[in-house]
Write a structure and sequence with these properties.
This protein is an alpha+beta fold. It is built from seven helices and twelve strands. Strands 4, 5, 6, 7, 8, 9, 10, 11 and 12 form a nine-stranded mixed β-sheet that branches. α5 (157-171) packs across α7 (219-233). It is globular and about 55 Å long. It starts with a strand and ends with a strand.
Length: 240
């Protein structure tokens, strides 16, 4: 990965990753920008907390907590998501990640907001992430999401990330994951009612907005719920 420091038209300096359209971060001084550029260059690869994991298909990934230095990995991985995968994540067409998006995705406190990422050992490229964000009105629950780049979907990576996310959530006093879903498919609604607690928040024509709460201690059920959502029968809210 190659980075540049450039003056910003609005003042200050941007750090950019070559090949991506939006800057990674904005800084008041050139010195701050250069320091951040150096941190980005050090960020890829292993670090404390990294774990090498074998997937069911025999491939190997590095799994580790997300840190602010991972912004370039997110920016580059975004280019490897198909349009449909991007839409499912943000429920809107989103051609690029802004500096604010990258800050939200990487600057986590690992207690109320956790993110576990996976990278490819040979290239250092980002492959996927699982995250939760604690619900402030129900602090024993958190909204959860898993995203894996298109080329690595269906290989078991989402389940690996989700199981580690569940363990972190339990350590931090979270007992249930929630998701905001939109569905017009009654059979999908009944499925989620069997999997966990469902609360209907509202209707928009034939489409229902529902909240689903699933036990953190049941990763297979969580994985089934998220996989079902990814089929297109339901749409998962972004949590943003």
């Amino acid at each position: 990965m190659r980075f540049t420091v450039e003056p910003s038209p609005a003042g200050g300096y941007h750090v950019r990753l070559r090949g991506t359209p939006a800057p990674l971060s904005h800084h008041d001084t050139e010195e701050e920008a250069e320091a951040r550029r150096a941190a980005y260059e050090r960020g890829a690869g292993t670090r404390p907390g990294s774990e090498r994991v074998d997937l069911p298909d025999g491939s190997e990934v590095i799994v580790r907590p997300v840190e602010p230095e991972d912004k370039p990995l997110f920016a580059a991985a975004w280019e490897r998501f198909g349009d449909e995968s991007r839409y499912r994540r943000f429920m809107a067409a989103k051609p690029r990640l802004s500096p604010d998006d990258l800050a939200y995705l990487t600057e986590v406190d690992h207690v109320d907001h956790e993110a576990i990422g996976a990278i490819e050992p040979a290239t250092g490229a980002g492959l996927g992430v699982a995250r939760y964000a604690r619900n402030p009105d129900r602090p024993h629950t958190a909204e959860a999401a898993v995203a894996v780049i298109d080329a690595w979907q269906g290989r078991g990576l989402g389940g690996v990330l989700l199981r580690r996310l569940c363990a972190r959530a339990a350590e931090n006093g979270i007992s249930g994951f929630t998701a905001s879903l939109f569905t017009h498919n009654r059979s999908m609604l009944h499925l989620f009612e069997r999997l966990g607690q469902v609360r209907v928040r509202g209707h928009d024509g034939a489409t229902m907005e529902i909240d689903v709460e699933l036990a953190v201690g049941d990763p297979p059920t969580l994985e089934l719920a998220l996989r079902t959502a990814a089929t297109g029968h339901v749409h998962v809210g972004s949590g943003r």
